[in-house]
Automatic annotation (TrEMBL):
Signal peptide annotation: none
Lineage: Eukaryota, Viridiplantae, Streptophyta, Embryophyta, Tracheophyta
Cited InterPro entries: F-box-assoc_dom_typ1, F-box-assoc_interact_dom, F-box-like_dom_sf, F-box_dom, SCF_F-box_component
Domain F-box span(s) in chain numbering: 4-50
Domain of life: Eukaryota
Protein name per Swiss-Prot or TrEMBL: F-box domain-containing protein
Gene3D superfamilies: 1.20.1280.50
A Pfam family recorded for this sequence: F-box
Amino acid sequence: MMKKRNTVYLSEDLIVEILSRVSAVSLARLRTTSKRWNALVKDERLAKKHSAYAPRQSLVITLIDSRVYLMNVSLQYGIEKVDLSAKLTGQFSLKDPLSNSLEEVDIRNVFHCDGLLLCSTKDNRLVVWNPCSGETRWIQPRSSYKVSDIYALGYDNTSSCHKILRMDRSEDRIPIQTEYQVYDFTSKPWLVDGVAGGLFIPSIGTRRRGLSVKGNTYWLALTEDGPPFDMFLLCFDFSTDGFRRLSLPTDTPCTYYDVSLSVTREEQQLCMFKSHGSELWIATKMESTGAISWSKSHRFHFRIDEMTVLVDQEKPVFVYRFKPKSNMLHIVGEHIYIIQVDQHSADSKCPYLLTYVPSLVQIQQSI
């Protein structure tokens, strides 16, 4: 600590120690105040300490007009008083490196994992982005990206190395096959080539986007040319760079439209909601072998076509869209409430919601 006249200057190590206890979203606001603060937020020392000491937040983000927004969903849900609100609290700005101006990137889809966002753009580019630190890594394709591609971001649990999965459904081949590639952040890109036969991820709502749980990604999938109820849980394991087929928690026949996946707050547990019977199941145990133990958590007396984000597991309160591309949300507990998202434009819609756990995790750069 240095002192000059009546001014006290803290050492950088002490500043890092203090900031490691501050939330990532609050630190993100400091980046715009000066170059020094911007550099400090991106510092590896702060990233490591922040991961260990900072309070862990579980927030909600949404994509509106090709921009990513933070959404504050307030759930003051008591016996005598119900105070519910949903409003946009800020925008994450992603500048376009191909533009000479301050033009922002038009984002088509967003996938969240470990505090990082994997974004596909409307001009078919791919970028990994930490909105809190501002760090990005643009991913170059081996062959041109397609609108129909399916992407997922995860990490190897044995090395903490982040990876990207790209799936390309080849419908010009009989039988139809899904080719996939894996991009490794710490070695040569797009190392793994493979073909996943006999499975199909329909282009319905947000289900193609998949969900990240502890580094792996999960989808609801169908057996190719199988019966309409032959549905299973598809997992891509980023530690082995391979797919696994897992069982769903119920044997009750249901269609692809009747089932949705979600995650509890802070992405701790995978959830499945079955609208036929209105059952909420939670994966209580996930083995390294791929085996999953399920527990029926709650039963509701209403129908949900597509659950988007589970907000609270302990209270059974969760949020889902009133209808596709709407700015109306259902907030559900013992009763159903419909609220309108307070946002910047009445004409803008929320295509989907994502749980977002902000962090200062650094993006591995190529060697």
